[in-house]
Write a structure and sequence with these properties.
The protein is α/β, with parallel strands linked by helices. The chain starts with a helix and ends with a strand. Helix content is about 45%, strand content about 20%. It is globular and about 55 Å long. The strands form two sheets. A seven-stranded mixed beta sheet has the order 6-5-4-7-8-11-10, with helices on both faces. A four-stranded antiparallel beta sheet has the order 1-2-3-9, with no helix packed on it. It contains 13 helices and eleven strands. About 40% of the residues are buried. Helix 5 packs parallel to helix 6. The chain has a domain of about 230 residues: Vaccinia Virus protein VP39 (Rossmann fold).
Length: about 325
């Protein structure tokens, strides 16, 4: 049975979080004079064009690799201040994560943990796994239940979320990954789920993560794909385009970045489950945004759920889901 957006994002709570989201947005806009311009976060090219403006944030597209990125953007110090004061993350930790924790664990994180374990088992890798951006600790908790890894480390710099991880009896580093003091070549697997899109400098992040990896160790990452259905149809009107997300890679541009960080590409996939449901909800909320999208509107308005399920399967198989997975092996 497929799950839907409402299962993990209860609509009543999502509406209640809007003031917190707006507070965070205004925090950044009030300090926009501190934003700085950057080159493409995937290929470092300075050849880029305007892509869109949303909520007074500017987005450009790289003319070399088609990565979309916020430009200019908050510098690293401002981003650190932003996440420390975030009312939105505080709201998620207090209300949305607890309300949806069990279904997230069963429908997202246990299957995700199983996928990681199956892949590691195939490549005869175990030992120590480290998650960067552990958030509510649900993945670490889920993978701990499989008793596959001897050591599980959660890295989570946000204070409220780090405390939640501790309450789940996890080993926690409450600091950014670049400040974590662990020996080089000491970790077997590093995972990072939905973190890459938030970072000022994704390349530095990957290099920090892989410096801890043993040779042959795995770096497993997920993030939104700019080639996903939502942004292909709605462009900047897609909900994934927001003030927290600075980087929108495609499957090919993220692979390019991994290779530039001395990672051998082992797998690239888009195993998302929610693209069609998310777009259907957007269609019901703002049908005028789909006035020139007859094909998509036909699918979204159909009473036959099987049509939407088949379309979601098509997206998954053809790297067109917005949920991007990539696995790299350290050379």
């Amino acid at each position: 049975m497929k799950f839907k957006e409402i299962d993990i994002r209860p609509s009543d709570l999502m509406k209640l979080k809007e003031p917190a989201l707006e507070h965070d947005k205004q925090f950044l806009l009030a300090r926009k004079d501190e934003f700085i311009k950057v080159n493409c976060p995937a290929c470092c090219s300075d050849d880029h064009s305007e892509w869109a403006i949303k909520d007074n944030f500017d987005y450009t597209i790289c003319n070399q690799c088609n990565t979309v990125f916020m430009n200019p953007r908050a510098n690293e110090l401002l981003l650190a201040d932003f996440y420390k004061q975030s009312k939105n993350y505080e709201f998620w930790n207090k209300y949305i994560f607890p309300a949806s924790d069990e279904i997230r664990k069963e429908r997202i994180f246990k299957p995700r943990a199983q996928k990681v374990i199956d892949f590691c088992n195939k490549h005869e890798i175990n030992g120590t796994i480290l998650e960067v951006g552990a958030a509510y600790g649900t993945f670490c908790e889920a993978i701990k239940g499989f008793n596959y890894f001897q050591r599980i480390i959660a890295v989570e710099p946000t204070p409220d979320l780090a405390e939640t991880c501790r309450k789940k009896d996890l080993e926690v580093f409450q600091e950014p990954i670049e400040n974590v003091k662990l020996p080089n070549d000491s970790i077997d697997v590093v995972v990072s789920f939905e973190v890459m899109e938030h970072l000022f400098n994704p390349k530095d992040f990957i290099l920090n993560c892989t410096s801890m990896l043993k040779k042959g160790g795995l770096f497993i990452c997920t993030c939104p794909s700019i080639d996903g259905l939502g942004t292909l149809v709605l462009k900047e009107k897609a909900k994934v385009i927001d003030h927290e997300h600075l980087n929108y890679f495609s499957p090919s541009s993220l692979a390019l970045l991994f290779q530039d960080c001395s990672l051998e590409i082992v797998e690239v996939s888009t195993p998302g489950e929610l693209d069609v449901d998310l777009l259907k909800n957007a269609f019901l909320e703002n049908p005028e945004d789909f006035s020139d999208q007859q094909f998509i509107s036909k699918i979204l308005s159909s009473e036959e759920e099987n049509i939407r399920n088949n379309f979601q399967d098509f997206l998954k198989k053809n790297l067109l889901s917005s949920h991007l997975w990539i696995i790299g092996r350290k050379k």
